[in-house]
Amino acid sequence: MIGKKLARHLARVRAIADRSITDLSLLDMTRPEAPAGFYGGITTATLDILDREAVDRCIAVRPDVIFHLAAVVSGEAESDFDKGYRVNLDGMRHLLEAIRQEGSKQPYRPKLVFTSSIAVFGAPFPEFIGDEFFNTPLTSYGTQKAISELLLADYTRRGFLDGIAIRLPTICIRPGKPNKATSGFFSNILREPLAGREAVLPVADDVQHWHASPRAAVGFLVHAASLDLAALGARRALTMPGLCASIADEIEALRRIAGEKAVRLIRREPDPAIGAMVAGWPRAFDAQRALALGFCPDKSFDDIVRIHVEDELGGRLP
Amino acid sequence: MIGKKLARHLARVRAIADRSITDLSLLDMTRPEAPAGFYGGITTATLDILDREAVDRCIAVRPDVIFHLAAVVSGEAESDFDKGYRVNLDGMRHLLEAIRQEGSKQPYRPKLVFTSSIAVFGAPFPEFIGDEFFNTPLTSYGTQKAISELLLADYTRRGFLDGIAIRLPTICIRPGKPNKATSGFFSNILREPLAGREAVLPVADDVQHWHASPRAAVGFLVHAASLDLAALGARRALTMPGLCASIADEIEALRRIAGEKAVRLIRREPDPAIGAMVAGWPRAFDAQRALALGFCPDKSFDDIVRIHVEDELGGRLP
Q1: What are the pLDDT digits (tens) for A234-273?
Q2: Given an 8 Å threshold on Cβ–Cβ distance, is A234 in contact with B154?
């Protein structure tokens, strides 16, 4: 989802920092759609990241910048232990090794922008999680992301690539249909009412979480690719600046933008199992490093709702 | 080295906490020596941790407690990138998967005591590194240990085993011949003069580091195996309480115990490359969690020297 939006953005702006984009390769399990309006070379293809030789062939074209967003999401990595480790850990190693092997033929040191997650953190937390707080994930997904961050930092330190891991907040409002991410309800209670449909809220109104719009997430990725990563030193993983909001804050933003009839479409059905999981999730960060490096958060939850209305609903409310 | 001392200790005390030891299996790349005086079952065999089927066969006997000390040391993991990842990461995964697969046949949840390292931390550091400081290793070895800690925690959380990772301080005085660990000089400048031989000191006298005697390290391992690990919650990695000492502190202890003639055997040959590496190493910790759980550090550097004289030199000084 973010990958598709990123591809559209890159096709439109045709540059990363001051370097113009000449070729775009878009790779996914199912063949991605080519974004309209890009005049450079464009390749769209299927890629199974578990097929090491296929990964090698993709890297053999020596891209300057690689965005790695492929992942089994949190809920699925928890329900299918083997698949999570295969895709999220072995897949990452395939990519890193393909780059290293390509560089062993002749010098090659691409920029690698990896989407990590705030799931690398696990409760109990301080009120604001600082940039030097430790990683004690409470999910297999978070474990796989934390391991990938460590690998990326080591491959960077050894000179095989120039990596940055950005820990995305929970994306809100995630467009399209619900996926297997446990955090889906944060989006569902806005997206569904905005389309005139009912949504289930399984947790209490005072549950706080850390959010970013899809537009902010694309902004993080592009900014990461634009930076001189030497500024990061050896510490290549950055928590992105999200917006801390409670369920009540979400609902108030929905009320201000779409009115009481939208809010009435939210049906409270407390689910203790989901409530217990969410209690272990981070709520708020002090993302100083990322802010100092120019990463820009959403300004308000109203903005997060408006971005969805503009980008997904053509500006129309039900 | 620690494994050998641990085996001797277990053979002598014949119990872990209040459970007596009925069988000991000792496995290494070369067949370990059976410790004397153990009246239970004893198996010594070679094991290549990269041979997954061989690891499976070792786990098939369903040991209650597993000590995992196998590793490529820091210097070698840095000089041979592939070997380090194979042994220190893939090897760990072989062990974890062998345990998980064994448990899928019929319930099995052994205690796994894994020796991690303070190399999981990377500079810059606070004056004292707390229990919640993040892991940003500056070596491939430290990266592999940090990843192994994450895997151990996730396999524990999923109920496949009951794991604890203990981050050993640098072992001092390491007996025997120098190995490929970059930190070897901390031991060399004591062990060699205590045996009447010259030793090279490649760093400045004010370099501080975090040490534990082999006897303290064995104590940590046995105590870890004795604990009810539920007390650790989800956070299964613990920094062990070492002793913070400078090179000057080491030399003064040597002087007090073996006299000026031993100190005169230390030859200062500053090596800027080693100095630069050591500048990135941790110096001192605030190991509150481990102390609260009853892990015992060495009391003084004089004790560290005395332990070597007692355990390795039969109490004799040159």
Answers
A1: 999 999 999 999 999 999 999 999 999 999 999 999 999 9
A2: no
